[in-house]
Specification:
Length: about 290
């Protein structure tokens, strides 16, 4: 069974995600579920119409990539790559692919790209974004959609931005910031913090911990030594964020006698109640042209 089928059928995937994917495909949710059960749910459709895919589609519309050679930093499964390739000359998709990703993510990336018949425009590059193995100004644009939140330790961001700036003539970056934080966005922060607690209790390596988005002033400060910001805007894609189900996965793996399990279970119940009442939404995006 492919990753898209497994993802769609997972009991912790919220109903709104399944509903959005079926709506995007133009079919009923039950029909989408049958496709998943028979291992026929198209991966590129899942990636395009889930909340993360919709968000990155909207980010793409804010930037001009026409006739450009693009470097994408932090490509993952290709949520953003599939949109970049449709109007650019080519996309070099870079990712380090470490941890639990390294054994399967490139295969899943290829499934997504081949579903769009754009495979011949994509070059895969497995590398550290702090040391990109290409000459200066190799690309017209270096792009990144929300990848900075996942970097740890935090001093890595400046190194990555400097390297992206070296290998390209322009930067296009989208990063979560906490401008105009409301209760639904606070729930997004809270689930990341609770997930980190659960990961620590589970003895997950520090490099796999979840991290909260950044303050607005932190984002701006990254560019002080790189060269000014040509333009930026705050943008709310108005999409629901992550839910607390993936926190539950970590908690469930803890032994029943673990000293922190009961406390984590109680915190999860409270968080789920808050999400049920107020929702859960990713913070505002800061879109940066530099």
């Amino acid at each position: 069974m492919g990753f898209a089928d497994e993802w769609f059928l997972h009991p912790l995937i919220p109903g709104f995600e399944k509903e959005m994917i079926a709506e995007g495909m133009g079919i009923e949710e039950k029909e989408a579920e049958k496709l998943a059960e028979t291992e026929n749910l198209p991966p590129h459709k899942v990636v395009e119409w889930c909340s993360e895919g919709r968000e990155k589609k909207k980010i793409k519309k804010k930037f001009d990539y026409e006739d450009k050679k693009v470097l994408e930093v932090g490509c993952g499964r290709g949520y953003y790559t599939q949109f970049l390739t449709r109007e650019s000359v080519s996309v070099c998709a870079l990712d380090k692919m470490v941890g639990n990703r390294e054994n399967h993510m490139w295969d899943e990336f290829k499934e997504v790209m081949k579903g769009h018949d754009i495979w011949d425009k994509v070059l895969l590059l497995q590398a550290d974004a702090r040391d990109i193995p290409v000459p200066d100004d190799s690309f017209d644009i270096a792009a990144c959609a929300s990848f900075f939140r996942d970097m740890y330790p935090y001093d890595m961001q400046k190194e990555v931005i400097e390297e992206m700036n070296r290998v390209s003539e322009g930067l296009r970056i989208a990063v979560y910031v906490d401008k105009d934080l409301d209760r639904a966005q606070q729930n997004f922060y809270d689930q990341l913090e609770l997930r980190k607690k659960a990961q620590k209790a589970f003895d997950a390596p520090e490099k796999h911990w979840s991290h909260v988005p950044f303050k607005v002033y932190e984002v701006k400060s990254w560019f002080e030594d790189v060269g000014g910001i040509e333009e930026y805007e705050f943008y709310d894609p108005d999409l629901k964020g992550e839910w607390a189900g993936n926190v539950e996965l970590y908690i469930d793996e803890l032994d029943e006698t673990h000293p922190k399990k009961d406390q984590l279970v109680e915190e999860l119940k409270k968080l789920n109640a808050d999400i049920e009442k107020h929702g859960c939404k990713r913070p505002t995006l800061m879109l940066i042209w530099a």
